Structures are given as C-alpha cells and as structure tokens.
Amino acid sequence: MSTINTNDVLIRRLDVTARVPDQVVELSERHDGGLLIERLIGRYVIDADARKVWRLIDGRRSVARIVEELAAESGLPAAEIEQPVLTLCGRLVELGILQTVTPADTAVLESIAAAG
Q1: Residue 111 has what pLDDT?
Q2: In 23, 54, 57, 80, which residue has its Cα 20 to 30 A from 90's Cα atom?
Q3: What is the pTM of this model?
C-alpha cells in the first residue's frame, strides 16, 4: 500500500470521474450516500464516510487539514479519524485515483486561484 502522511496534499487524477451511484447500486452493498469513481481501467464504489473525505481532496488541503475538518464536522476526535483517512487515501493513491501534489501542481493551482 502507498504510504501517505498527514503533511501530504492530494489531488484527483485528471482521468477520474465521480458520480452518485444511483444507477449502479449492484456494485456495492454499501452504496447509500456513496460515490462511484471511474477510470478507464476500473470502477470503484466508496461509501458515505469515504465520500466525505473525497469532497475535501482538492489539491490544497493537507491530509491533516482534512482530518481536522472531518473531526469538527462529525464531533469525533481527530485521533480516531486519522488512520482510516490515511488508509483510504493510501489505497486511492495505489489505485491511481489520487496523486500527491507536486510543486508544479501547486504552481498551477495558485495561478488558477489568482486568476479567479
């Protein structure tokens, strides 16, 4: 499994699409509130808890910040949320759905934010 740490900033790969799995409920027993993630080489269904992490992955937030925001939103201790978030993110990196932000990615994201 890919090693992700709390300082990492992650971004979705450009070849990834995500949609609510209303029409593909047969792909997972835990589809309620989840999300279907597709690449040319596969389909993956994440559950509602993983979807909360997914919506915060934007190329600007560190994993630590994502954990903090989820803890504030859920009322759970950050220490309880951290390892499941790291495990999920590591698996999504391993599957090629996410990637760690590079300095070049950061420069592009900053220029888009400044323009916009």
Answers
A1: 81
A2: 23
A3: 0.79
